[in-house]
UniProtKB/TrEMBL annotation, chains A, D:
Entry similarity comment: Belongs to the BCKDHA family.
An annotated GO BP: branched-chain amino acid catabolic process
Residue span of region Disordered: 1-31
Residue span(s) of domain 2-oxoisovalerate dehydrogenase E1 alpha subunit N-terminal: 12-50
Name assigned to this protein: 2-oxoisovalerate dehydrogenase subunit alpha
Annotated organism of origin: Rhodopila globiformis (Rhodopseudomonas globiformis)
InterPro entries: Alpha-ketoacid_DH_E1_comp (IPR050771), DH_E1 (IPR001017), Oxoisoval_DH_suAlpha_N_dom (IPR022593), THDP-binding (IPR029061)
From TrEMBL, chains B, C:
GO biological-process terms attached to the record: branched-chain amino acid catabolic process; response to nutrient
Key words of the record: Oxidoreductase
Protein name (record): 3-methyl-2-oxobutanoate dehydrogenase (2-methylpropanoyl-transferring)
Alphabetical list of SMART domains matching this protein: Transket_pyr (SM00861)
Pfam families recorded: Transket_pyr (PF02779), Transketolase_C (PF02780)
Names of the cofactor(s): thiamine diphosphate
EC number: 1.2.4.4
Highest taxon, organism lineage: Bacteria
Length: 417, 337, 337, 417
């Protein structure tokens, strides 16, 4: 019989620890517990380094851009200004795209949307470290991977609108893009499943003697899922060419990263128990992201195995169009985030190095807004969720299997089509 | 009697039980401070404290696993899985552990847990916010599976589930949370307050697990349904103008076979509805049982109206959802035979 | 033609495919160096190298998860789950990922994987080495589910499964690995070499998924079975002296409904056998379909002879296993009606 | 279309790393890569220590008994010789019990058996650190937890024989014991599931303000399972009173601990990424096990949260009666294991401190053999798997639910009982 018996020992009673964020709505944002090392202060080991030799890096933050907008320290590289401007453009376009799609959702043009506002540097800069043929296994917050490679916005919007031009035929929830061509694996609505799949893909690349690498993506909250652990175990054992990205944007819907275990260790430190080298990196610093991503991709490409990277960033917007963050965190928290805004920081750097100006920024913004608007207009021609042309009904029976089996043909008939 | 939405009724059931029995604890993803993505646990942490109602890490196996451990200790955990579509990572703990603990330990331990999960489609949730996995539970010996179709039942069944000493899977049709839904997405939204079964007694009451409810008496054909499909059945029967008897099963395991047998023996015809994919859906079990129990009364083949054997598509939601039009056709067909 | 046991036939199928197609890789717990706890992969690592056949960590979600990733890359992974009872931790990857990848990506990616797992009881394995979870796969759109009953079919079906571009669950009745078994544990063990279907052609051949085999023609009653229960059916039909038609389904999804319809239309009676628990077992789907397709031919209620709705007990294995005696009784009952 | 494309890059091809044990059958055992620190050389921190302050302990091995049979170093305590003799007896009884049951299985008295030979110290000494009311969540290799508390062997044997006196009514595979009274949770055939349940039980104890603690058990191989990770995440977040034991006996059926990730990190180090303090301990050293277990139990009892302990030991026997280890490891490997045999080591210590002799050992062995034989005879009176009295058939329908529902009553009827 399950039964609660009073203990016979006269000891102090135990109690349950339930972690709580420093502040809740109504209080002033407080990030005083977030230790931010100086930009440039963290060493850059050689890519052949052993996991054990860089445990300290998991408890720090690799940063390149300082408050003055300068690129400093061992992770700073000489980068072509054109490359940086392309990065700025990619991030701004991502933000503008998000804004437009959020609006489209409010206008009833689609059912749902998820923005990555505040986190643009992570995906946009990471993508620059990959080559054609490499494969990302993204979550729903890595639209930047597509936009950074100039994947057509119209194609993305068609998916969001589930219209007749949607390559996914209206089957998927908005933002759950797929593009083999763009090295962008099909997004699953089920968290974390892609993490171990990325490891499998990378194992396959190694089995075939290929040179392509995989990048796995996961959020801080989702690291609690089983497939996160499976991925680290398999990556530890087989040393496949994979980059294990954790985007720590501090929140998982309404729960802070404390509820995923962030109170007692960093997410980068998770790698230590598996003997996987790991880095913790300023995710709002385009240059730091680019440098760390290149380091990890090089390790993978040189058959040195997996690298885990925690990108420290902040989810500036709502979790999705279904949620209102002011219910669980102060409205001003986003503005108080100590690592700042990735677009502002890269812009400041470009200005500091004399390659940019407030005017050019305004001009670029206008250009991008036009581009996004034009794309939206074009996509809307193909229909939106409740208006205009749609994917045909009969397609719902297609592609469940390669060839339609009899029972599905019968059901299609039953439907009367 | 107070009128409640489904959400309010569920929340009230939890509140009543947390107040009555300090062994009841409630947890899940976003369940604590925020009160759940569907707000079913709103206010419970404030009222009952952080160790009785709390947020969990995003690990469904962890959520069910700790529930089993807590249950074995002597608590009565009520765990929420944010969407039924996300229960799979916790399925091992449900099937291999919660369901079999009493049996394998010959009663030394058991798992008096409730696992709540929103189920079904109709909210444009796409393939991972729309599934109806009830058959994956009904196949597992040791589990009970409950699906209410209205606030009154939701509260009474949930209290019964919490008081039950066996593990109960409590499926909440999310399309019904805020109002009844008859399968006509084009018609104006109806609030629960216009539905008689929103009348929900105050305080503690139970609806015994394993008892079906007859929603409409009739002599011509029996319609077996549960959850959202009960409302679709009502609309379709109205539209078809058939004298159907509509049975709301409420509990799938244990099943009220008496009610089913009585009705089909009388009507001689049977239509079975569910939203889940057809092959190996719970409708198959119902069909098999009706056939076994009422063979000599049957005057026409039993019809199953179900979701198609495809993932739940996003844009074509209403082509997938087994709405009144399909049910009307099935009623006509079964009456013709 | 060489005679093989089920184990040899499976091993041979893997060997043939690994030799023919260098995209085929084989892995699982104890599968590499040791060759699998049932020895189905013995020698494959030696012959095809460590990167084509290897041991994995004990993580079923990991095993299926990497298989999906490898499949998306372009390999054709054949993963082994040590016992079907242990597939639950990998169920999410099967249901939410492998099964839906093609659909949700509109064909941009798919998962041409095979997941092999020993299934069924009869070896005193207790509740966690005896389960028959096929219905948990047949309910999932996008999966194919195969269960061979003899070496000849096992090899041909496994090769077809590996060549198939959809995810295939390949259930291997472990009680049949080393010999046919008719459900009489008291009778002397029979080796495969005495069974005609141990004759297994050399090299490559396939048995198309979705085709049933008629094991015995008959006019009086149709018996639907698969896996171990095919042999039980044969023994029982013999003992009962009924002119039964025995259909070995071989593939549950896609199902050979033609063969079923043809037979039951002829016999007008149907008995369905499986080892899995009854409620929501695959027998329910078969019963529903037979009833839907052959209603006007049916002369007696369809009977289901199945495992009981309990966990598989250890000591009472033969009370649980649906043996010939129960089938004989069912045949008698269905003929009487 | 999934399709393998030749990469366009001219880089060195990748390859898959598949770890392989140092030796296989036919070669000489080689444990040269196993670093064994001197007994007494590892510090003993205060129980209030932070997880980060003892990371080094996860990469070492706490040992108390040295080669001379002396108890040395900070983890050595003054222990009553009677306590040590009880420990010796418990371990010897466990071994004798295993031997008898292995024989019974070969004689067809049961279907299956699993021994813990070579690992007796882990469970036997751990149990001495617990109090009545605490709860173990064991695997199939912790029979020592029962035997160390003098749980009746006859009761255990009844379970193994699935006879009429089996409290579990023949339902469970042999060795899958249950005893709430003995603080021994029902063993599952599914690996790792108990690990997170133990965390849940401990959370419940904390929620109730109780003083009881839980102990979770898992094997090295099973740490790869999902529930291991879930347990660490929940233990990290809620800090419940639980001891997370990992029994690293070097093997998981035929695969070495390398296939679980043991090549690149210790299992104790897994705790670091979750901020959980961890120890790595000589599992063949009765005194070290006792001391480390007490340390961890004290932490739990004082509301300091979870401790993870890796017990380093060796599975001297076959995995189970279904397997033949000479197929995958050298026959002599067990004898070469550098941490020796736990019974021999405790015996040597007792002799060294003048509390024991070869004669008393022989005498005790004879006593134990008699006791085990007598128990076996008694149990066999109640039947064995294929002979004598059995649990009744109708019980198979009982206890699926608390009250038997109609469909099971109908099925019982259908069975004709
Ligand atoms: C298996 C599963 N469980 C739960 C959910 C519901 N869910 C969707 S997003 C989310 C939060 C994820 O947080 P995080 O991983 O931090 O990613 P972020 O949203 O911050 O990018 C949850 C709980 C889900 N989609 N899948
Ligand atoms: C979920 C699950 N997967 C696989 C198995 C099969 N299995 C039983 S024991 C075992 C090896 C476990 O090794 P380890 O955890 O090291 O424990 P040990 O046997 O060494 O004590 C395996 C793979 C199982 N019982 N459950
Ligand atoms: Mg997050
Ligand atoms: Mg082991």
């Amino acid at each position: 019989m399950n039964e609660i018996k009073a203990s016979e020992r006269a000891a102090t009673p135990l109690s349950l620890h339930v972690p709580e964020p420093a502040v809740r709505p109504g209080s002033k944002p407080d990030f005083s517990q977030v230790a931010i090392p100086r930009a440039g202060s963290v060493r850059r080991p050689d890519v052949t380094v052993g996991a054990h030799e860089i445990h300290d890096l998991a408890w720090s933050i690799v940063r390149v851009l300082n408050r003055q907008g300068e690129a400093v320290g061992p992770w700073a590289e000489a980068l072509d200004p054109a490359f940086l401007k392309a990065g700025l453009r990619a991030m701004m376009k991502t933000r503008a795209y998000d804004a437009r799609m959020m609006m489209a959702q409010r206008q009833g043009k689609t059912s749902f949307y998820m923005q990555c506002t505040g986190e643009e540097a992570v995906a946009c800069a990471f993508e620059t470290a990959l080559e054609k043929g490499d494969m990302n296994f993204p979550t729903y917050r890595q639209q930047g991977l597509l936009i950074a490679q100039d994947w057509p916005l119209v194609d993305m919007m068609n998916q969001v609108f589930s219209n007749e031009a949607d390559r996914l035929k209206g089957r998927q929830l908005p933002v759950m893009y797929t593009s083999r061509e763009a090295g962008f694996f099909s997004i699953s609505g089920n968290l974390a499943t892609q993490y171990i799949q990325a490891v499998g893909w990378a194992m396959a690349s190694a089995i075939r003697g290929d040179t392509r690498v995989a990048a796995a993506w996961i959020g801080d909250g989702s690291t609690a899922e089983s497939d996160f652990h499976a991925a680290l175990v398999f990556a530890s054992v087989y040393r496949p060419p994979v980059i294990l990205n954790i985007v720590n944007n501090q929140w998982a819907i309404s729960t802070s990263q404390l509820i995923a275990g962030g109170e007692n260790a960093t997410f980068a430190a998770r790698a230590h128990g598996y003997g996987i080298p790991s880095l913790r990196v300023d995710g709002n610093d385009y240059l730091a992201v680019h440098a760390a991503a290149k380091w990890a991709v090089e390790r993978a490409r040189r058959n040195l195995g997996a690298t885990l990277i925690e990108w420290v960033t902040y989810r500036a917007g709502a979790h999705s169009t279904s949620d209102d963050p002011s219910k669980y965190r102060p409205r001003e928290e986003s503005a108080a985030w100590p690592l700042g805004d990735p677009i502002e920081r890269l812009k400041a750097h470009l200005i500091t190095i004399g390659e940019w100006s407030a005017e050019r920024q305004t001009q670029l913004q206008a250009e991008i807004d036009d581009e996004v608007l034009a794309a939206a207009r074009e996509a809307e021609q193909h229909g939106t969720l409740h208006n205009g042309p749609k994917p045909s009904t009969s397609t719902i029976f297609e592609g469940v299997y390669k060839d339609m089996p009899r029972h599905l043909r019968e059901q299609r008939q039953e439907m009367g089509i | 009697m107070p009128q409640m939405t489904m959400i309010e009724a569920i929340r009230d059931a939890l509140d009543v039980m947390m107040t009555r029995d300090d062994r009841v604890v409630v947890f899940g993803e976003d369940v604590g401070y925020f009160g759940g993505v569907f707000r079913c646990t709103e206010g419970l942490q404030r009222r009952h404290g952080k160790s009785r109602c709390f947020d969990t890490p995003i690990s469904e196996t962890g959520i069910i696993g700790v529930a089993v451990g807590m249950g074995a200790y002597g608590l009565r955990p009520v765990a929420e899985i944010q969407f039924a579509d996300y229960m799979y990572p916790g399925y091992d703990q449900i099937v291999s552990e919660a369901a079999r603990l009493r049996y394998r330990s010959a009663g030394d331990f058991y798992a008096p847990i409730v696992v709540r999960m929103p189920t079904g489609g109709g909210i444009f949730g796409g393939q991972t916010h729309s599934q109806s996995p009830e058959a994956l539970f009904t196949h597992v010996a040791g589990l009970k599976t409950v699906i209410p179709s209205n606030p009154h039942d939701a509260k009474g069944l949930l209290i019964a589930a919490i008081e039950d000493d066996d593990p109960v899977i409590f499926l909440e049709p999310k399309r019904l949370y805020n109002g009844p839904f008859n399968g006509h997405p084009d018609q104006p939204v109806v609030p629960w307050s216009r539905h008689p079964l929103s009348e929900t007694p105050d305080g503690h009451y139970t609806i015994p697990l394993g008892t079906a409810a007859i929603r409409r008496e009739g002599a011509a054909v029996t319609v077996l349904a549960y959850g959202t499909m009960v409302h679709v059945a009502e609309a379709a029967v109205e539209e078809a103008g058939v004298d159907a008897e509509i049975i709301d099963l409420r509990t799938l395991v244990p099943l009220d076979t008496d009610a089913i047998e009585r009705s089909v023996s009388k009507t001689g015809r049977c239509v079975i509805l569910h939203e889940a994919t057809r092959t190996s859906g719970f409708g198959a079990e119902l069909s098999a049982q009706v056939q076994e129990r009422c063979f000599h009364h049957l005057e026409a083949p039993i019809q199953r109206i179900t979701g198609w054997d495809t993932p739940y598509p996003h844009a074509q939601e209403w082509d997938y959802f087994p709405g009144p039009a399909r049910v009307v056709r099935a009623l006509a067909a079964v009456m013709e035979d």
